[in-house]
Amino acid sequence: MLFSLSELAFVLLLLAVIAGVVVFGYWRASELRAAELAQRKEELEAEVGFLQDQLEELAMGNVPCWRRPDGVIPFFIGTLTVPDEQVVTVLRAGQEEADARTVEDTDGELEHALHTAIRQEFAGELRYAAENRCYLRIAVRNLTDSFAPYRRVVEVINRTGIVPVGE
Fold first, then answer.
1. At 100, which helix (H) or strand (E)?
2. Which residue in 60, 89, 104, 141 has a CA-CA distance of 20 to 30 Å to 150?
């Protein structure tokens, strides 16, 4: 009977060791899974924060086009430069200075000519903004010593539905 009890004790010890190894394996796997889930939770919390910011922007109706996921609109769609009171140059983003369009005051109609030039030059961006309910930004540089020409240009930009940003 002693021999069979020692065999039984050995078998039970062996089963206990095997059970311990199996439990340790499950414990280790659960630790790794918990670490993965914690990392995923942090990523999702960051994404939820970003989406909440976007929802707040949507609620206020002020979503910039450059933040859209397709990323086709640059931060500034272009630059308007006011070198003097009678001339405004229109430059699209990504173009060279040599390709800039010059709008000159003829018969006191600078505002009308500039409005037409902006609508023609940025027609695609304006259409995109209307379809996607977002707004566009354009940089305005005033090279004159007077604020009046800058203000006239900004008023024209505001009528086109573009947000002017002074440089």
1. none
2. 60
